[in-house]
Amino acid sequence: MKVLKFGGTSVANAKNIGLVKNIVKNNKNKTAVVVSAFGGVTDLLLNAAKQASLHKKEYKKTFLEIEERHISTIKELIPVANQSKVLSKVKSELNILETLLEGAFFIGEITPKLSDKIVSYGELLSSYIISEYFIAEGLNANYKDSRDLLKTNTNYGKAAIYSFNETNMLIKDFFSKNKSKITVLGGFIASSIKGDSTTLGRGGSDYTAAIIAAAIDAENLEIWTDVSGMFTANPKLVKQAKAIEDISYQEAMELSHFGAKVLYPPTIQPVLSKGITITIKNTFDPDSKGTTITKNLNKNGKTVRGISHIDNISLISLEGSGMVGIPGISKRFFEVLSIAQISIVLITQASSEHSICVAINADDVLVAEEAINNEFEYEISLKKIKPVLVESNLAIIALVGDHMKNHQGLSGKMFSTLGKNNVNIRVIAQGSSERNISAVIDKTDVKKALNSLHEKFFEENTKQLNLFIMGVGNVGSKLLHQIKQQKKYLKENLKLNVRVIGISNSRTMFFDEDGISLKNWETLLSSGEKANKEAFFDKVNSLNYRNSIFVDNTASDVVSNTYADYLSNSISVVTCNKIACSSQYTNYSKLKYLAQKYNAPFLFETNVGAGLPIIDTLKHLIASGDKILKIQAVLSGSLNFVFNNFNNQTTFHDVVKQAQEEGYTEPDPKIDLSGIDVARKILILARESGYKLDIDEIKNKPFLPLESLNTTNNDDFFASLIKHEASFQDMYKAAAEKDSKLKYVAQFEDGKASVGLQHIPKGHDFYNLEGSDNIVLFFTERYPNQPMIIKGAGAGADVTASGIFADIVRIGNF
Ligand code: ADP
Ligand code: ASP
Ligand code: MG
Q1: Of all atoms in ligand 1, which is nearest to the CA of residue 260?
Q2: If pLDDT is split at 50, 70 and 90, which confidence band does 231 have?
Q3: I want to staple 572 with a disulfide (CB 3.0 to 4.6 A). Which of 5, 312, 495, 600 is the partner?
Q4: How many A from CA of 263 to the centre of ligand 3?
């Protein structure tokens, strides 16, 4: 015989029950089919009971919803000819349910016993309706009320089998006499010796199926659910999770105990002693292999088999100097919790006698607190012990695997991964089974923790990068294009999975938690909500994704003022915006400090020389022990363009105009021509070389006439260039007479920086600098005479985007 169990989603509606029928029908063996309540009905029943007990009339609405679910399912499933019998039976059961709820409403109270009675209607009705449907479909099926077979104690809500001998005998006896090929039973429900309805705990239908399987020595127990097996982590939270093909009873038990809801923890116990295989299968994808749970210890060599978590955890601690020396404190502590029927999920390994700390379900916290404070009232009054300390909004995450105990370094890997992702660990415990390592963390960090650990232990070191991009103009749109082109390469070759989660321009912003499609991001963005920098940050922060990177492609000071918020929340920042790094030294150094403190890289390679690896090279030189003696550079693509094209055949005005029109200058060309842009760049290089400098310390001798510098709009500016053409021609002539070219040069030496126009003689490294190229010479202790030279295009949207992209990839390899 086989036992097949179908969970709530599998029987949530007529369509799904049709799938269940096909699975059952294809089975050759004699079968016990255990079903849950229709998906969501148990919650509705509990809610109705609660509303009624609080005198809330809404319970009637909830009841009507429950009624409607069942009646409409019958009407869809069962042919009209057979409907009336089923409808009248179900209606009379629903009448009783309504009366029970009415009772609770009038009394304004609900006892655990009445609650179980009410809740049992979920499985009672579902199993009856499904059995009638099977019969109507011509299957050789019958119905059995499982309360006749499973006998429990009266621990309502989570009753335990009172006597396995008796329960097993009742089950065996029933099936040996039963002639039907298929028997449909409700899971989760049982009855006490006195015959009152009881339930086995939320998710307990799995357990019913396992008890029946063990009693009849079934050849297999199949758990049919809404996912294709037991996964390496909850697939609803970790997209990359994979079904585990084979797993041992012990590992499965540990995973389910630590929250893998796909299997109710007590389920394994009954089948384990009989060696019955459990298969977990997907009702909605019956051909997928699923998971097989057997007694075989895993042999595939993987140490960590799965990661699970329990939400809704609180820590309670008892501490006080007076605890040392008082005998039996721990005994009393645990005893009092046990009497209050509170189960302890995790005990921390306290090495001192000063404190005891345990994790429990948050729902039990008030009872636990009161019970312990009462127990230790005397010691607390003497101030030997402090009143119980409660910490809430926590969760437990656990790594599970049979062979973990033999492997050193797993916990190191686990905790360093969590640490790198800024997940704060409250408490650590290594299970005595040595089959798990668990940690208590903040509830809000669960998704991030699961995903980072999953990445570390299961994804062959693939790393997901989550990008939030502000500014999608010239540079930003090129960046998105490059990411789209390179995505596959990065995944295959660098094991980086780059996803764009949020984008914004000055008008709108758009997020897709699964990654924005880069094919039609423009349309998506224009349909997005109104742009708002604070809301953008709040969203990035609340998503709390691992490896989040904020990318600033704007030139806005308001945006650069938000970097500190990102970095303080462990969100990396990549930017081509120079404002932050050339602002007050205190601000620059604060951002550097935050980046280090919160483990969030702050990269701005494109601040100098667009895509050229200037800052990165500088950092490598310094990191490897070299010392910067002097930097000489042409750092303005626009000024280089201007002076490469200006001569005695052209006018300064026309060349600047051309540079502006071709996009080589800032919209306000004065920013380039005044030298301020170059001053900011050399300032950043000086700071990155380890010098404390501010912009007003940089010597900047402008070549523009004062009148041009003082203009306040582009028209006046260009007019002033025409007016002063003669002085520009003089500049040219002075250089040409010495066989030299004009170059706007930035220099840093002995802690001092300057920018200005220079005559560059033939033979100098700068002499033949083409078009809008940049060049940097690093004179260092290791390169004292022949400098290290970096040269190439220093402006343009494409190269700037590729520089930003390179920073993103750097973070990926961080
Ligand atoms: P059923 O109603 O069929 O009993 P449950 O909701 O009780 O289904 O259990 C299935 C759910 O368990 C999945 O939808 C998934 O969200 C959750 N789950 C949690 N951890 C895991 C895991 N490690 N593997 C598979 N599912 C898991
Ligand atoms: N219907 C019950 C619940 O929702 C039992 C189960 O589905 O396993 O908890
Ligand atoms: Mg379940």
Answers
A1: 20
A2: very high
A3: 600
A4: 6
